[in-house]
Amino acid sequence: MPYCAAKAALATLTQGFARELAGRNITINSVAPGATETPMTAWIPDDMRAALAAQTPLGRIAQPEDIADIILFLASPASRWVNGRTIIADGGLV
Predict the structure, then answer these.
(1) 27 with 18: CB under 8 angstroms?
(2) How much is the average pLDDT of 64-68?
(3) What does the mean pLDDT of the chain come to?
(4) What is the dihedral of CA 60, 85, 6, 19, to 10 degrees?
(5) What is the model's pTM?
(6) What is the C-alpha separation between 41 and 35, in angstroms, rounded?
(7) Which pLDDT does position 1 carry in this prediction?
(8) What pLDDT is attached to residue 94?
């Protein structure tokens, strides 16, 4: 439950800061990654990992580069019209 509450709070903070800073031409966005192959997820057993990948429409667990590319986009001028959004990066799972 605390994890869910914290995630919701971050999405709300993202929207609030986006509105507050828009007048200064500053955009605020966040990324909510799904399961990603990192040292933090290394403990997940192979059968659980396979089941998670099978549930994901893209058929795999994210690699760090998948999430990094989204962050690079948000940090670039190409995202100038994206503001106050939380990008859910989970391969279509949710």
Answers:
(1) yes
(2) 98
(3) 95
(4) 170
(5) 0.87
(6) 8
(7) 83
(8) 86
* pLDDT for position 3: 85
Q: Residue 62 — φ and ψ, nearest 5°?
A: -65, 150
Q: Which residues are catalytically annotated?
A: 3
DSSP string, 16-69: HHHHHHGGGT----EEEE-SB-SGGGTTS-HHHHHHHHHHSTTSSPBPHHHHHH
Nearest to 61, CA basis, from 51, 70, 76, 69: 51
Distance CA 24, CA 14 (A): 16
What domains sit in the chain, N to C, each tagged with a CATH number?
2-89 (3.40.50.720)
